[in-house]
């Protein structure tokens, strides 16, 4: 697990009632969308331009997200290649008005930097 104690999340969001499934948990696709948004923000900054998601690796849901959870999405750059960037994402749910922190999922998202014709281009390293 990432050390999140002194970090700011890329995203912080509360799921809405429309985001729950028949079990009373949040849809996995909703969580995946939030992770992709956060990873895209970090990848775009690193690439200094447009990026596209090309792969999601090692995705694992370890605990459900509940309706009143406050979701924090953390991101770290794991690798930078010639045209691609790997972003490690971790999602933590804050429950019971912040009294409990629960890691709910993590994954590795790979992005490719895009040029003006939507073709891969070299990553402009920071």
UniProtKB/TrEMBL annotation:
HotDog ACOT-type domain location: 5-117
Gene3D superfamilies given in the database record: Hotdog Thioesterase
UniProt GO MF annotations: long-chain fatty acyl-CoA hydrolase activity
SUPFAM superfamilies found in the cross-reference section: Thioesterase/thiol ester dehydrase-isomerase
GO biological process: acyl-CoA metabolic process; fatty acid catabolic process
Pfam families linked to this entry: 4HBT
Keywords in alphabetical order: Hydrolase
Gene Ontology CC annotation, any one: cytosol
Family named by the database record: Belongs to the acyl coenzyme A hydrolase family.
Annotated protein name in UniProt: Acyl-CoA thioesterase
Source species: Allosphingosinicella deserti
